[in-house]
Amino acid sequence: MTRQRSSNKKRGNRLGFWFFRAALRAFGLSGAYGLLYPVCLYYLLFDRPAVASSMAYIRRRFKTYNFLRRVYGVYTLFVNQGKNLIDRHYAVSGLGEFDVEFKGYDEIQKLLSASPKGLILLTAHVGNWQVTMTALKKLEKTVYLLMSPEENVAVKKALALDSDRERIKIISLNNFLGGVIEIMKVINEGDLVSIMGDRSDGYSSEEVYFLSEKAAFPYGAFSIAAAAQCPVVVLLSAKISAKKYLVDASHVIIPRYSSRNKKHEDIRGWVQEFARIMEDYTAQYPLQWFVFRDIWKGKNLNNANVIKP
Amino acid sequence: MAQDLAQIKKDLKEMLVTGLSLEDIKPEDIKDDEMLFGDGLGLDSLDAVEIVVLLQRNFGLEVKDMENRKEIFTSIDTLAKYVFENRKKAS
User: Fold this and answer.
1) Is B67 in contact with A182 (Cβ distance < 8 A)?
2) Backbone phi, then psi, for A55, in 5-degree steps?
3) Which of these CATH numbers, 1.10.1200.10, 1.10.357.140, 1.10.10.10, 2.60.120.230, describes B2-90?
4) With B51 labelled, which of A25, A70, A217, B74 sits at a CA distance of 20 to 30 A?
């Protein structure tokens, strides 16, 4: 998918990560969580881009909150994101496990057995997607993650991907034409492709209503699914208790163009449906939204509506 | 062979204009050596998905054979050459 690159500031450093890992081993999950509170206070005071993008969400999600409550909401988002990172390391390094409730597993199995083709998993930066990816191993299908090379290294590390033995593989966005030909190939072979559907970051996007205002969401997943004639399964996760995650794959969108001249309207409808599902998610799990982008901001809408009618 | 190639190019141009709903472009407006993506015809990666499907549907080509062959998608010339060679293999 064509795009303009966004600057994605990396936060934390090796010493910081070592510190948290050491705390996790010495004091367990709650001990490591405890360290997050002063660290996140530092980010709240000094990381203006992260605060601004989080505030954009909090302001729209909690319309009646006063300024102080909104700031506290941003702080809670930071703390929850930190807990996610700690949980991820806890699970991947084998220190312990989380229970995972997989909602929609049977639906995915039905879709896969009904057709030789695979499907697209449309996911978002909510909950803990590393836990989600680990849960997908249960499907016994190869899952390809579409991502940029810079994310590639971090994700390989986060998921402890070990070369060809793993059933989670990566398709690089830097490949020819954003990897779409590889995507088509693996879908035809019955495999799954995971695409992030929440950050437009200069990708071809569509403006739809989200939390009562127009926001830009990328539509590549729907365009590919419509061409490949495969379903899109919305895949979200949420932490529902201290040691339990919910992975929800129960929302399925079947993108099929109603006619050649209505592609634009069809795509907008599917993106709006995805936004509606995301809105329901934020109603239920408001403080697990880790998109960290102001998706309502005008500059993100530069490439919106570029699809041919 | 020259006649076959010319026909394939004509078919490809019609396929692109119709299949991709290219407004204000007629098949004869597309030059054989014009870049399909970026500058040139201005197609993007999402159009590429549809081109792959159109090639499968209209010429019986396999997507797995197109992987790692980015030169195929340079222009009508390269696309036609690929279709000509691979359609022949299939038949």
Assistant:
1) yes
2) -65, -35
3) 1.10.1200.10
4) A217
